[in-house]
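re the bet — no i am not wrong, look at it urself. input seq straight from the record:
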Amino acid sequence: MWEKINKFVYSHVILSVLLLGILFMLAILAVGILIMLDMQPTIGLTLFTTWQIVLTCIVVFLMWKLQVFNIGDFKFKNMGKGFLLGWLFIVLSVILFLLNLMQLPEDSIIKPNPLYLLIVILHPFIGTGLFEEVLVRGLLLKLLLKKMGHTKR
């Protein structure tokens, strides 16, 4: 079965990339809408992040089955500057968020929930960032590079 799928994907790479991208984005959109409509924000965002992690695992499995998986892509070699810049922005975001939160008046209508605030701060980094990087750079870009080659032409 995977031989037929591999044959189709590599003979129609651009169509496959578009279909996979649309499929995964629709899965995120559908679950996000369903969860956010009728759940408490804390539970909804937690489930949404969990769904993104599950989809990330599915993308890694597809990368393995479509033979574009490279264990070197998941090593931390030569990523120091990226992590340094990324963590700098994470720390700055958290500091600014907490400073704004501390400026709320005591009699404010807004009552912060620490668990929800933690989930809101971590969600973009754990769920969205990981899913987007693995899907786009890990699977879709590698399929295109395998078809078109690594030259600038």
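see?? The helical segments are 2-11, 13-37, 41-65, 80-102, 114-148. told u. also The first helix runs from residue 2 to 11. so pay up
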